[in-house]
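Just scan this pair:

***
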Amino acid sequence: MFKSANLLFLLVFFSVNVYSQNKNKLIQLSGVVVNSDSLKPISYTTIYNKTVKRGTLSDVYGYFSTVVLPGDTIIFNRFGYLNSSYIVPDTLQEDRYSIIHILNLDSINPPVITIYPWPSKEDFARAFIEMKPYDDALRRAQKMLSGSNLAYLSSMIESDAISSYSWQRNQQYTKLYTMGQTPVNNLFNPVAWSQFVEAWKKGDLKRK
């Protein structure tokens, strides 16, 4: 009788000790959150440990990993899906555990919100009245790509390194060509006249 009581006491003590050690054992809980309909990963799901008040997020592939204790309650939350919970088993022997958690779509769809670029109905009415219905994207593109507009834009852009180098090289060649001679008078230079007429046609002289 005495031996049986001692044996029972040892078994109870051993069970309580094992349960206590298992209860305080850290577990690396990893897994993937998927959709219940298509089983596709659900990205950026909130995984909140309700027991220790700590949480994390799943990545773009629905994968997550967090440290938990046996018996912790994990809440899965994602906009458009019903909240779901998971209780970490207290009988786990390994320090790593993987799960596939499924979330169900929420049957209540939120209302569609449309954002307009006008702050009020009055601004919208004024913009609607002043709108030019025939000035569509194609005509705006034609205006932007017109010769006069492109010439104006090119005149506003500073010369790049290649253009500056070409201009400097031409100046050096001109000096070498006329070295020891009277400088060339562009008044009788047909190339200079051709460049002048071309610039006059483009309207460069008017802008300058």
